[in-house]
Amino acid sequence: QVQLVESGGGLVQAGGSLRLSCAASGLTFSSYTMGWFRQAPGKQREFVAAISWSGGTTYYADSVKGRFTISRDNAENAVHLQMNSLKPEDTAVYYCAASMVETTRIPAYPYWGQGTQVTVSS
């Protein structure tokens, strides 16, 4: 059974930073693409960032390029999302997800964490 557990969310003022973490367990495939997605109130869930399980390739939504950085810790089976220069529009529940395909498309991610709340005040 695959389990993804997010942590690190919280309340921060605009311009501040947060670091989200996702601990993965129960992975049986040789490799996974790991992604971060977010869902704001009244909006559809959207792609934020992704990284190949090898760590060699990263993807970012245009809205977060230059501000967010996704990374992976091999030994700990964990992925992180460093979020800098946060804006109020970044407020959302952030979800960690795993896919057997290197993609940014939500339907290709069968495994999801429970989400962690990020709130950015103006």
Structure class: mainly beta
Q: Provide mean pLDDT, rounded.
A: 93
Backbone CA Rg: 13 Å
How much of the sequence lies in strands comes to over 45%
Q: For the report, how would you describe the main beta sheet?
A: 7 strands, mixed
Individual helix count: 0
- In whole angstroms, the N-to-C terminal distance is 40 Å
Uncertain stretches of 5 or more adjacent residues = none
Query: H/E order of the elements?
Result: EEEEEEEEEEE
Helix fraction by DSSP (H/I, runs of at least 4): under 10%
Coarse morphology = globular
Number of strands: 11
- Counting copies of identical and different chains, the oligomeric state is single chain
Summarize the structure in words.
Strands 2, 4, 5, 6, 9, 10 and 11 form a seven-stranded mixed beta sheet that branches. A four-stranded antiparallel beta sheet has the order 1-3-8-7, with no helix packed on it. It is globular and about 40 Å long. The protein is built from no helices and eleven strands. Strand 4 and strand 5 form a beta hairpin. The mean pLDDT is 93. With 122 residues, the protein is mostly beta strands.
Index terms:
four-stranded antiparallel beta sheet, seven-stranded mixed beta sheet, 122 residues, single chain, globular, mainly beta
